[in-house]
Amino acid sequence: MKITGLYLAAGHSLRMGMNKLSLPFGDHLLGMWALEKAIHSQLDEIIIISNQVNALPYKTAEDEICMVTMIEGEGPNQSDSIKAGLDKAIEYQSDAIMILLADQPFISTKIINQLINIYKQDHTRSFVAPLMDESMRPPILLSKTLFKDLYKLEGDQGAKQILMEKRQEGVLVPFLDRKIFVDIDTIDEYLFWTQNIQSMSLEESNE
């Protein structure tokens, strides 16, 4: 069974007013935290969806499981990024994908593996998604049975739009720690979390 990560790193960063993924965050760039966690997980490969505006030093040559897909334009919609990654995942004959957001620095390798292991125990399920405050949060693992539905997404629609309609077909995994799913969109959020992460190393955040 091949599970491919789609690392969405081609957003607009409109609320930040700059390329937020290239901002320093602890001992790494903001956009590198979740990627490092994914690299050390049980994902078989990772497709990084990026563009020239949000380009980062991904150093894919240093890790054979990573590959970069570039999208044209300064700020493609989320559905564009998902479809671009999905094209590659299908080309690589993936059985499932996991959608990860590049602006979620507190996602851990442990959580990624937890979702993967749940799916492997019962891969008849269409998806596995974290549940926080009665809402699904990324990273979300989706079976190839949903690939056709993902191609129907438009604009900034994410996979949650589809999963709400197929809620009974998936597994929802409850979490209590809101920090895990924080995504950094504004300068105030960036400054707040920068202060909280100064003493935290990448290795510690994987636990």
Q: If you average the pLDDT, what whole number results?
A: 86
Note the gap between the termini: 25 Å
Largest sheet: 8 strands, mixed
CATH architectural arrangement = Alpha-Beta Complex
CATH class: Alpha Beta
Evaluate the radius of gyration. 16 Å
The CATH homologous superfamily: Spore Coat Polysaccharide Biosynthesis Protein SpsA, Chain A
Which blocks of ≥5 consecutive residues have pLDDT under 50? none
Strand content: 15-25%
Write the element-wise H/E pattern from the N-terminal end onward.
Answer: EEEHEEHEHEEEHHEHH
How many structural domains are formed by the residues?
Answer: 1
What overall form do the CA principal axes indicate? Answer: globular
Q: Work out the helix count.
A: 7
Q: What structural class results from the helix and strand content?
A: alpha/beta
CATH topology: Spore Coat Polysaccharide Biosynthesis Protein SpsA, Chain A
In total, the number of strands is 10
Q: What can you tell me about this protein's structure?
A:
- It is a single chain.
- The protein is an alpha/beta fold and 207 residues long.
- It has one domain: Alpha-Beta Complex (Spore Coat Polysaccharide Biosynthesis Protein SpsA, Chain A), CATH 3.90.550.10.
- Helices cover 29% and strands 21% of the residues.
- It is built from seven helices and ten strands.
- It has helices spanning 33-39, 78-91, 109-121, 147-150, 160-165, 187-197, 202-205, and strands spanning 3-8, 24-25, 28-29, 45-50, 66-70, 96-101, 127-132, 135-136, 140-143, 171-174.
- The strands form two sheets. Strands 1, 4, 5, 6, 7, 8, 9 and 10 form an eight-stranded mixed beta sheet that branches. A two-stranded antiparallel sheet has the order 2-3.
- A hairpin with a 2-residue loop joins strand 2 (24-25) and strand 3 (28-29).
- The longest helix is centred in the middle third of the chain and has 14 residues, at 78-91.
- It is globular.
- The mean pLDDT is 86.
